């Protein structure tokens, strides 16, 4: 076996070993003088680092005193040392004022910088070992230290340090460790933090999103409702978020409209302005107290407005705000259409240039026709340049409430109204004809088409019933940090979200103009508009000159828009042709007041309805009845016979979807879609006339007289028919259509009918 090596035993006892180790450890751990001094210096440095501005300055002033004695002992030139005072003061002033823009702070730093060489020069001459010098230096140093410490810049730094500490505590509690506060602004209701989140390994968009829960966590730590903390990503830096904290309730105060003050109402009614003076103020932003504005027309041209507002959300109040300011403009005419409730015509009638109320579908169509004719007239005059509004050639604002009564799926006049609404939306912007349309939902069944979405620069969303409805108006609302109008300011009436064409938004409360009695008084005090249309334009607007023939007291939906004209004498019974002309007049009514008021009241629904006869004349009544029967029979004679088999609603919807997608359908699908002679006839006639020159889609649209989108769909169907009815050549702006015989490269000997 291998032998184990053993260490020799020491002769020292275990007691001696313990005593030796104890003394050795004590001697080894005993600090030296240098270590003690170094530890003291480090501790003092940490103490100064906690407040470098004040403690550092005090330490420097204390160390400066003995430096003067060194200059005295070495025999330094006092004048040479003192000569450095002016340039030091100038450099200190320029450097600090450029950075902080604080005269008090810069003066203190400049005086301190100048005092250092001045003190060294004085101490080099006098020495420091005398009472007057010590006393003078102590007083000067104390004053300098106090002035610097209590300067506005140092106060801001201390306040900022406290806010930074508060944010650090709040961020840690909310799970946002390692974030850094880089800015804080006081707002009307609280504060707004700018926070650098790059060190948190989280994206700003992730923290600002609704699913992150950071806003709710912060609100819980402060003790506020979740909706009073909002987080958005910074527009200029992807690593920064903005945290808005509303310490005060933004809805505590009322949003009263000036018209609600009886003393101010007459002044408001007499106030006049130009639409170019600025946007319309429709509410107040609770965060800033700034007005919430809506731009209808500015130097860039017109801006259509699309409002989505369910029942009871405050749409009437919003319209009252807009119309109140529009009717105060000297270069705006308002043509109101409200076939659903008649509110616009009933209460704003005296201040409007034209209006259509309940049961006045013909008048509504006529207003839309005037608008289209005005657009065409101005476009020809200006070549498409932006209209310049004047009192003699004003902007025309058409507020349409309940758009579905015009263009919706259940509207009886949708086929006539929709092409005109589309034309105004697409061409009215530069011509100074602007639409303000409102719908309960932002879907095609209510709007009739997608033009309000595509061509309305301004989107206004009022209180919504469901968050899903927001996406039908502003598809990217959540990603843009917009509030959810289904939950925004719960329990508060009249809230609105306004989004412009650049996706810039503001949310707040609409000014309270819900008292319709006050609105009616205001409209009467304001009176008829002062702006007028040019005579050349008026001549081209059928029935425009007679728009005020219905008295303001008419019960037909409140359609009256001004004082009634003097009543004409009762006319004799009219012939059939004259009666049809009268029935086609705006509103289909004649005024009756004054001496004939009794007669008008007896036959209100006959004479005023435009039948043009005296109901007391029995022969005239019988003759009219016979003519009406003959006319009805003549109209029914040309009507098509109903099909033997009914068509289900599902099949009708499917057929409409196929027709709407005609431009994207496969050719075999379009081949089964028939083309009406009213469409194909004008198209084929124009192409036959043009021959090898062909025609553009715009020219064919004008020839057919239908909407542009409708004609384009049928052109695609005619192109895909087998054999093709027409042939297209080119693309986009160069697209032209031809008959097959005249298409570029066609063989004239080919028989296309086979």
Automatic annotation (TrEMBL):
Gene3D superfamilies: P-loop containing nucleotide triphosphate hydrolases. ATP binds at residues 309-316. The keyword ATP-binding applies. Residues 564-574 have a biased composition (Pro residues). InterPro entries: FtsK_dom, P-loop_NTPase. Keywords: ATP-binding, Membrane, Nucleotide-binding, Transmembrane, Transmembrane helix. The chain crosses the membrane at residues 107-128. Residues 1-33, 544-608 are annotated as: Disordered. Residues 289-471 form the FtsK domain. This is FtsK domain-containing protein. It comes from Actinomadura napierensis.
